[in-house]
Amino acid sequence: MFNRAVSRLSRKRPPSDIHDSDGSSSSSHQSLKSTAKWSTSLESLLEDPEGVKRFRMQEKAKEIYMTFLSNKASSQVNVEGQSRLNEKILEEPHPLMFQKLQDQIFNLMKYDSYSRFLKSDLFLKHKRTEEEEEDTPDAQTAAKRASRIYNT
User: Fold this and answer.
1) 68/34: higher pLDDT
2) CA distance 27 to 34
3) Residue 25, SS3?
4) N- or C-end of the chain: fewer Cβ atoms within 10 A?
């Protein structure tokens, strides 16, 4: 429902570009004017694509923080103490605010979780099933047909 409302309101009026005297776009002037407009009503915020982007970013950042990173998180992620974020960062969210944590979590998964997954019963069972399917006559026939079709 929220997405439909945003979509409908965003199509209502295209965003206007604000230009400096030299003709270049001025994002700082646009931000000042936009934020003043956003503060008048929710509808004004939702009519501006930049407003929608900022609104969603703050909402999503808070959701990520409260679910995974806060001390009271329901599904707290194991990250180093110095990588922990202060809740104040949510006041001015930006696209790269979780990048350091994301990189750290990716490396934990790559060097820890992934190697354990490759040794897990789940993975090994799936691998055996695939290997058994490859050995069936139907699979060999299909492979031969595919190699003739693609000349491999």
Assistant:
1) 68
2) 10
3) strand
4) N
